[in-house]
Amino acid sequence: MASSVSSRSTKSGWVPSSETACVAGRNIGGMVYVGTPPLLNTYGYRDKCRAYIDPSLSVARSGADKAGEDMPYWPGYSDISPQCRATYLDWLASGRADASYNPGSWFSLRTDPVTCARLPRHSD
User: Which residue among 24, 44, 46, 51 is least packed, with the fewest CB closer than 10 Å?
Assistant: First the structure.
């Protein structure tokens, strides 16, 4: 199931806290990067920005991997399965506070140090 980029903006990139992104039918809030992930290097390893939520990728109808057991080590949104994408989007849509999810599994999706070093800084 592909999805829209943002319910308030057609631009790709940072969605501030004052806006809400809609991906795969889920309102996931702001403070996320949405769109086609930019290339970070030309060396051939981990060249896509892990933190970008690419709305062109398939997403399962629902996510069931709340423990993150099917997540690879140091995952990127583009690298995870449609089921894991659904779980991650469900967690974002829940307000990111649902204790039944293990957000540690998504740590690199939210705080990729390479991404943080190369993408524009934001105040929120």
Answer: 44
User: CA separation (Å) from 14 to 30, 33, 63, 91, 114?
Assistant: 8, 4, 24, 19, 16
| Among 46, 43, 59, 50, CA closest to 93 | 59
Amino acid at 99: A
**Amino acid residing at 4:** S
- State mean pLDDT over 48-74: 87
pLDDT on residue 34: 93
Give the number of other Cβ atoms within 10 Å of residue 38's Cβ: 15
CA–CA–CA angle 14, 4, 1 (5° rounding):
125
pTM: 0.76
Cα 87 to Cα 109: distance, rounded to the nearest angstrom: 13
Residue bearing tokens 């140090």: 113
Contact 35, 52 (CB under 8 A): yes
pLDDT surpasses 50 at 76? yes
Alpha helices in 49-99 (DSSP H): 82-93
Beta carbons of 40 and 48 less than 8 angstroms apart = yes
